[in-house]
Amino acid sequence: MVYFQISPVGFDCGLDKNNCEKYPDFCKECVKAQLEKFGLNLNHNLKFTIIDSEEKRIQMFQDLIWQKFLDVLNIKHVLLMAKESGLALVDYPISGAGVNTGLLTGFIQANITFSESSNTSNGNSNHRNNHQFYEFQYETFNILLKNAQFIRICLVLDHKASDSLKILVTEFLSDYESRYLDKIGAHIRKGMMHFEDTIDFIIDTFNVNLVFPMILTHTLLPNELEIIQRNPIQKAIIDFAKALLASKAFFFIINLIDEVQKIVHIDSNKILYEVYKLIEKKIIIPTTIETAEDTISNFQESRAVRIASNELISSIITNNDAINELKERAKHMSEEEVRSSLNSFIRKAETAEKGLAYKEAQKECEMALYLASGFDYKEEVGRISFMILELDKKIKELELEYALKVGEKAEKKKDYIKAINYYQQGLKILEDVQDLNGNESRIKKLKKKISNIQKNL
User: Fold this and answer.
1) Which residues of 360-377 are buried (b: 16+ CB within 10 A; e: fewer)?
2) Is the pTM of this model over 0.70?
3) How far lies 147's CA from each of 40, 105, 109, 119, 130, in Å?
4) 143: which strand partners?
5) CATH superfamily, with its number, for domain 68-210
6) How many other C-beta atoms are found inside a 10 Å radius of the C-beta of residue 21?
7) Which of 39, 84, 187, 262 has the greatest count of CB atoms below 10 A from its CB?
8) pLDDT tens per residue, range 330-369
9) Is the peptide bond before 222 cis (omega within 30 degrees of 0)?
């Protein structure tokens, strides 16, 4: 049998407090009775809090997520060690704090030995050390240390640990030993074992993904875009994220919050709450610096190969004399001339985009990308690549909108051949374009519409 302790659990009783005779004096007994119908054991560790409005519920989650963020910002290094030998099992740096873990483990072992010998001389049992935290200074850092039955965890922190972080550490140790008991036992019996595969569990438990580099999805569906447009904070978040990505392949949440607050005077916890919801929807995606850079590098490499083989970058500029002229000029351009030309192409692209001339904007971006990838300007390649992908998305969305509108007009005029033709064009865009993939309901609806019209022929 496996017993699960679930905390915290939220429960909506479904009743209006203004129409309930039992509110608030008998809420605990009422909710407990309803939950016991589901077979939940509520005899132990029951913490009961009434959240009697949607505003309070949202505030609770805002504060909870903000505390998670503060806690993970405080953590610079996570070190898991075998309790008896002191050997490091997991050495996971979260930031570039430059901690020498070899010296640190020796320092920890000396402090633990001194502390335990002091407790023993005072008549205290060593068993108590499994239930307490050790906190001490190491260089400029604060160290939080706690023992479990077989392992100990060491967090290298900027500041002293919060109570919430200490609770999280206690829960982590219990869960970690239960989850990886066989691996830990094998290490104790046989010696060295690899524990790198447990790092994902550390990341999940301590919410480390909140300090990961972030990127934006390129598969934002129309209904998701509509929801974001109705939420002014989320809209500001996406707009500023795009601005940050224009100069770098990724951004960090802390920088994003700072940028949003420069324009919109909103509490940090409210901004983070909306960022967190976008992460849950996979609109903002945590990644690693290596992954983000590899994505841009791979994009650049594929473009560079086409340049090296003397191919044009896209069909948009295939018959454009300007690209042939640029290819010749590029052979003799100085770095200053390259930078100047790049900025000129990008300015033209931005002007064209503001005028809704997306294909013209994409043509200018392709010219800029030709130079940037040919001269190995990685940051510019990332920025321009993102612009091209966004422009391509807008072009396809306009093409889809046009095809559906023409199809609807033709259908109303009973010009069924023309209607089917344009509906099929729209269907092809929905099925083929990556940015609109996943919209299965629209595809099914359009297929059904085409099928119904075909019955009239």
Assistant:
1) bbbbbbbbbbbbbbbeeb
2) no
3) 31, 14, 12, 15, 5
4) 136, 156
5) Dynein light chain 2a, cytoplasmic (3.30.450.30)
6) 6
7) 187
8) 777 777 888 888 888 888 888 888 888 888 888 888 888 8
9) no
